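User: Predict the structure for this protein chain, please.
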Amino acid sequence: MTHAERSARAFEQARSCPACGDDEIYRSMMRGALERAFHWIWRVRPYRCNACYRRFWRADTRPRLGATR
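Assistant: Here is the predicted structure, written as structure tokens:
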């Protein structure tokens, strides 16, 4: 498998449900202070599948507010 194929596969998996493989996922609301802390420390967000309603976590790729390079 080439690097391009691996990259395409990783992108595809990141945009789909880990349980059923459906690609209709949406960001779920964080529940409580513990989940907000989890998000802040590990930079992940909760998502939910539109097909099976399973909730799972994915990396947050958006830059933090006030972040400078």
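Helices lie at 3-14, 32-42.
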